[in-house]
Protein backbone atom coordinates (compact mmCIF):
# COMPACT_ATOMS: atom_id res chain seq x y z
CA UNK A 1 0.00 0.00 0.00
CA UNK A 2 1.20 3.51 -0.72
CA UNK A 3 2.26 5.70 2.20
CA UNK A 4 -0.29 8.19 3.49
CA UNK A 5 1.88 11.03 2.20
CA UNK A 6 1.82 9.54 -1.32
CA UNK A 7 -1.89 8.86 -1.09
CA UNK A 8 -2.58 12.43 0.08
CA UNK A 9 -0.76 13.89 -2.95
CA UNK A 10 -2.47 11.43 -5.27
CA UNK A 11 -5.96 12.23 -3.96
CA UNK A 12 -5.44 16.00 -4.10
CA UNK A 13 -4.21 15.62 -7.69
CA UNK A 14 -7.04 13.31 -8.77
CA UNK A 15 -9.79 15.45 -7.22
CA UNK A 16 -9.11 19.13 -7.98
CA UNK A 17 -9.79 21.45 -5.04
CA UNK A 18 -9.78 18.63 -2.49
CA UNK A 19 -8.00 19.12 0.81
CA UNK A 20 -6.60 16.03 2.54
CA UNK A 21 -4.81 16.17 5.89
CA UNK A 22 -2.87 13.39 7.60
CA UNK A 23 -4.01 12.96 11.21
CA UNK A 24 -1.51 11.31 13.54
CA UNK A 25 -2.71 8.88 16.17
CA UNK A 26 -0.86 8.94 19.47
CA UNK A 27 -2.53 5.81 20.82
CA UNK A 28 -0.87 2.42 21.06
CA UNK A 29 -2.41 1.41 17.73
CA UNK A 30 -0.59 4.30 16.02
CA UNK A 31 -3.02 4.17 13.08
CA UNK A 32 -2.78 7.53 11.28
CA UNK A 33 -5.71 8.54 9.09
CA UNK A 34 -6.71 10.91 6.31
CA UNK A 35 -9.05 13.79 7.08
CA UNK A 36 -10.93 14.65 3.89
CA UNK A 37 -12.84 17.87 3.41
CA UNK A 38 -16.58 17.19 3.34
CA UNK A 39 -17.15 19.00 0.02
CA UNK A 40 -14.96 16.46 -1.79
CA UNK A 41 -15.60 13.42 0.42
CA UNK A 42 -17.84 11.65 -2.05
CA UNK A 43 -15.51 12.22 -5.03
CA UNK A 44 -12.47 11.03 -3.09
CA UNK A 45 -14.30 7.95 -1.81
CA UNK A 46 -15.36 7.09 -5.36
CA UNK A 47 -11.77 7.52 -6.54
CA UNK A 48 -10.47 5.28 -3.71
CA UNK A 49 -12.90 2.58 -4.81
CA UNK A 50 -12.46 2.91 -8.59
CA UNK A 51 -8.74 3.61 -9.09
CA UNK A 52 -7.27 0.32 -10.39
CA UNK A 53 -4.12 0.62 -8.23
CA UNK A 54 -6.14 1.26 -5.03
CA UNK A 55 -9.47 -0.60 -5.35
CA UNK A 56 -10.70 0.01 -1.80
CA UNK A 57 -13.79 -2.10 -2.34
CA UNK A 58 -14.94 -2.76 1.23
CA UNK A 59 -15.76 -0.71 4.31
CA UNK A 60 -15.56 -2.83 7.43
CA UNK A 61 -16.45 -0.24 10.03
CA UNK A 62 -17.93 3.23 10.19
CA UNK A 63 -18.20 5.05 13.48
CA UNK A 64 -19.02 8.48 14.83
CA UNK A 65 -16.99 10.74 17.07
CA UNK A 66 -18.13 13.78 19.02
CA UNK A 67 -15.45 16.45 19.38
CA UNK A 68 -16.62 19.16 21.79
CA UNK A 69 -14.64 22.38 21.65
CA UNK A 70 -11.02 21.74 22.51
CA UNK A 71 -9.29 24.20 24.82
CA UNK A 72 -5.86 22.58 24.43
CA UNK A 73 -3.06 23.76 22.16
CA UNK A 74 -4.77 22.12 19.15
CA UNK A 75 -7.64 24.65 19.17
CA UNK A 76 -9.84 22.25 17.22
CA UNK A 77 -13.36 23.65 16.78
CA UNK A 78 -16.32 21.60 18.00
CA UNK A 79 -17.53 19.15 15.36
CA UNK A 80 -18.84 15.67 14.70
CA UNK A 81 -16.89 13.15 12.69
CA UNK A 82 -17.52 9.98 10.69
CA UNK A 83 -14.60 7.55 10.52
CA UNK A 84 -14.43 4.88 7.80
CA UNK A 85 -12.10 1.83 7.76
CA UNK A 86 -11.47 0.81 4.16
CA UNK A 87 -9.96 -2.36 2.74
CA UNK A 88 -9.03 -3.59 -0.69
CA UNK A 89 -10.16 -7.20 -0.70
CA UNK A 90 -9.01 -7.47 -4.32
CA UNK A 91 -5.47 -6.29 -3.51
CA UNK A 92 -5.40 -7.57 0.10
CA UNK A 93 -4.57 -4.16 1.56
CA UNK A 94 -5.83 -2.04 4.40
CA UNK A 95 -7.07 -0.69 6.57
CA UNK A 96 -7.05 2.84 5.26
CA UNK A 97 -8.81 5.10 7.75
CA UNK A 98 -10.55 8.17 6.35
CA UNK A 99 -12.43 10.84 8.29
CA UNK A 100 -15.08 13.39 7.36
CA UNK A 101 -15.93 16.24 9.77
CA UNK A 102 -19.00 18.39 10.07
CA UNK A 103 -18.67 22.14 10.23
CA UNK A 104 -19.94 22.27 13.82
CA UNK A 105 -22.01 20.29 16.36
CA UNK A 106 -25.22 22.31 16.18
CA UNK A 107 -26.74 23.28 12.84
CA UNK A 108 -24.11 22.38 10.21
CA UNK A 109 -23.95 18.62 10.74
CA UNK A 110 -24.25 17.35 7.16
CA UNK A 111 -21.80 15.00 5.46
CA UNK A 112 -22.06 13.15 2.15
CA UNK A 113 -23.28 9.58 2.48
CA UNK A 114 -20.76 7.01 1.28
CA UNK A 115 -23.41 4.28 1.17
CA UNK A 116 -23.87 4.67 -2.63
CA UNK A 117 -20.14 3.88 -2.95
CA UNK A 118 -19.84 1.17 -0.29
CA UNK A 119 -23.13 -0.58 0.53
CA UNK A 120 -21.69 -1.77 3.85
CA UNK A 121 -21.95 1.82 5.15
CA UNK A 122 -25.77 1.71 5.14
CA UNK A 123 -26.69 0.61 8.68
CA UNK A 124 -23.57 2.14 10.19
CA UNK A 125 -24.35 5.61 8.82
CA UNK A 126 -27.92 5.21 10.11
CA UNK A 127 -26.54 4.35 13.55
CA UNK A 128 -24.29 7.44 13.50
CA UNK A 129 -27.26 9.56 12.43
CA UNK A 130 -29.32 8.14 15.28
CA UNK A 131 -26.72 8.33 18.05
CA UNK A 132 -24.67 11.41 17.04
CA UNK A 133 -26.97 13.43 14.79
CA UNK A 134 -24.87 13.56 11.62
CA UNK A 135 -27.13 13.95 8.58
CA UNK A 136 -25.78 11.88 5.68
CA UNK A 137 -26.85 13.64 2.51
CA UNK A 138 -27.72 11.17 -0.25
CA UNK A 139 -28.26 8.20 2.07
CA UNK A 140 -30.90 5.90 0.55
CA UNK A 141 -32.82 5.30 3.83
CA UNK A 142 -31.71 7.71 6.56
CA UNK A 143 -33.94 7.05 9.56
CA UNK A 144 -33.46 6.01 13.17
CA UNK A 145 -32.23 2.48 13.70
CA UNK A 146 -31.83 2.18 17.50
CA UNK A 147 -33.97 4.89 19.06
CA UNK A 148 -37.67 5.22 18.41
CA UNK A 149 -39.25 7.62 15.93
CA UNK A 150 -39.84 10.98 17.54
CA UNK A 151 -36.84 10.71 19.87
CA UNK A 152 -35.15 14.09 19.72
CA UNK A 153 -31.72 13.59 21.30
CA UNK A 154 -28.47 11.85 20.35
CA UNK A 155 -27.31 9.58 23.20
CA UNK A 156 -23.64 9.22 22.18
CA UNK A 157 -22.90 12.92 22.26
CA UNK A 158 -20.66 13.93 25.13
CA UNK A 159 -23.13 16.54 26.39
CA UNK A 160 -26.05 14.06 26.46
CA UNK A 161 -28.05 14.13 29.69
CA UNK A 162 -29.80 10.88 30.48
CA UNK A 163 -33.51 11.33 31.20
CA UNK A 164 -34.62 10.85 34.79
CA UNK A 165 -37.16 8.08 34.18
CA UNK A 166 -35.78 5.38 36.42
CA UNK A 167 -39.17 4.71 38.02
CA UNK A 168 -39.86 2.51 34.99
CA UNK A 169 -36.75 0.36 35.52
CA UNK A 170 -38.08 -3.19 35.97
CA UNK A 171 -35.28 -4.39 38.27
CA UNK A 172 -33.35 -1.38 39.55
CA UNK A 173 -30.07 -1.99 41.38
CA UNK A 174 -27.05 -0.05 42.65
CA UNK A 175 -27.07 3.63 41.63
CA UNK A 176 -30.15 3.09 39.44
CA UNK A 177 -32.01 1.87 42.53
CA UNK A 178 -31.12 5.06 44.40
CA UNK A 179 -32.34 7.23 41.51
CA UNK A 180 -35.52 5.16 41.23
CA UNK A 181 -36.25 5.54 44.96
CA UNK A 182 -36.16 9.33 44.56
CA UNK A 183 -39.07 9.02 42.12
CA UNK A 184 -41.21 6.50 44.05
CA UNK A 185 -44.23 7.93 45.84
CA UNK A 186 -43.44 8.76 49.45
CA UNK A 187 -45.03 6.51 52.04
CA UNK A 188 -47.41 8.37 54.34
CA UNK A 189 -46.22 8.86 57.91
CA UNK A 190 -47.93 6.55 60.40
- Based on helices, strands and strand pairing, what is the structural class? alpha/beta
**Radius of gyration of CA atoms, rounded to a whole number:** 21 Å
Approximately what portion of the residues adopt beta-strand conformation?
15-25%
Query: How does the major sheet shape up?
Result: 5 strands, mixed
Count of discrete domains: 2
Shape: elongated
Strand order of the largest sheet: 1-2-5-4-3
CATH superfamily of the largest domain: NADH:ubiquinone oxidoreductase Nqo5 subunit
The amount of helix comes to: 10-25%
CATH class of the largest domain: Alpha Beta
Q: In CATH terms, what is the fold-level topology of the largest domain? A: Beta Polymerase, domain 2
Describe the structure.
There is one protein chain. The protein is of the alpha/beta class. The protein folds into two domains: 4-153, Beta Polymerase, domain 2; 160-190, no CATH class. 22% of the residues lie in helices and 23% in strands. The chain has four helices and seven strands, in the order αββαββββαβα. The protein has a five-stranded mixed β-sheet. Strands 6-7 form a two-stranded parallel ribbon. It is elongated, with a radius of gyration of 21 Å.
Architecture blueprint of SSEs:
Layout lengths: L3 H11 L5 E4 L9 E4 L4 H10 L7 E10 L11 E10 L4 E9 L8 E3 L9 H11 L2 E3 L36 H10 L7
Parallel strand pairs: 2-5, 6-7
Antiparallel strand pairs: 1-2, 3-4, 4-5
